[in-house]
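Below is the record:
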Amino acid sequence: MKNYDVVVIGAGLGGLQSAYILAKKGMKVCVLEQNRLLGGCLQTFSRKGTNFDTGFHYVGGLDNGQPLYRLFKYFNLLDLPWHKLDTNGFDEVYFNDKSYMFVNGYDNFCQKMSEYFPNSVNQLNVYTKFLKHVGEDIFDSFSNNPEQNMAGMSLFGKGAYNYLTETISDPILQNVLSGTSPKLSLNKQKLPLYTFAQINSSFIQSAYRLNGGGMQIAQSLANSIEKLGGEVFTNAKVVNLVEQNEKLAIAEIENNEPIQAKYFISNVHPASTIRLAENTSFVRKIYKKRITTLENGFGMFTVNIKLKPGMFKYLNRNVYIHNTDDIWTEGEQLASELPRCVLVSFAVPKNNQEYAENVDLLTPMLWSDVEKFAGTKIGNRGEEYETLKFEKSQQLINLADKYLPGLKNAVENIYTSTPLTYADYTATENGSAFGITKDYDRLVYTLLTPKTPIPNLWLTGQNLNLHGILGVSMTSFFSCAEILGESPSIKMFEY
């Protein structure tokens, strides 16, 4: 039986980053991934020679000195083919048939929004200064200073919608500022202010796509782990965690030899993690019930489109189209309704050519929309499911074409996915795009820490603090600090 210092379950971003950190600290690390491909939400897939992303589309805060830059420097990810989006319009939001450009730089952003809303200049100044404060002080959460930590936690305990409506009086401006909503789960009653502010702030700093797809991040981390002496295995599904001498000791793997370790980190959903360890003496029924009944955020319906050559020019920005009077209710839509929003995200063309090769259309989708098809296999879900996907894809294409004329005529092939697809390929609970729903009013209950009732098992990934590339990258340090016996500190990842 192979023996390691640390076994990491799940080769999503958080799992690979945790393995990298610990391998760099000299520990013997093993990563176990149940799928054929690494990466979780970073996976890419190929159809007829065209690569499509699963869940990764762009990142924020990657300019020199910004938060993600500092993190990715540590993880040796800066040399990937990053492609900067247009600083004068990295995101375009359509609301009430009017276009609003989001620009990089806090002062520039405030000035641009003030041009659209001249009667809200003072309020926009307050709002932008707040985003800047949150964005620039992100590493306070690594500090040992209790006052700094409490300041960050206090924003988790406040409602994003409450802050927005108290700070901004114009309801149209409230919606516009929330217009890039598909990259976070808007909920009037639950979304913490810190989540809303940090994610929006990071993209105002800078915005980048990755030429060639997000899988490169996962593969780069895996290569680095192996260079540091660690091992990464695919097709290695953990089916049980075994207790010995009052600690976890063994990970049993489907159709393979078990593996022994001193420590375990799980990058899979906390509910799935607890199910793996439910036969140990540590998991009490009350804890299992708490974790397995936590609400998960909505998923995404995605249309991956291969475009006809030379038919539609590449857009170096993302386009968010809203067909609603209230953006904060978009995640509540049902399958039978027309889509209330669509995110249009283009892949960077090969050789930076003028015309786009492929584009993704995304809209929120509830698990309940596809739940009755659960248990079926990909490609064999039945005619009703295929009809649902086809009709919804046409609705999204028609909505996008209304604001991007010519897109529909440029479609060559389409491929679709639902939260059910997402759950199958990434093992996310209910196919959620953002993991467990954080509730600012029930913070202690919904904001999980890396610790579990099992003394040598820790959690990592988007289900803990923040979702997204930046949030998961930070959380991996929190998880590893527990094993290393260190307090989370910015010094952990400085050379």
About this structure: The chain is about 35% helix and 20% strand.
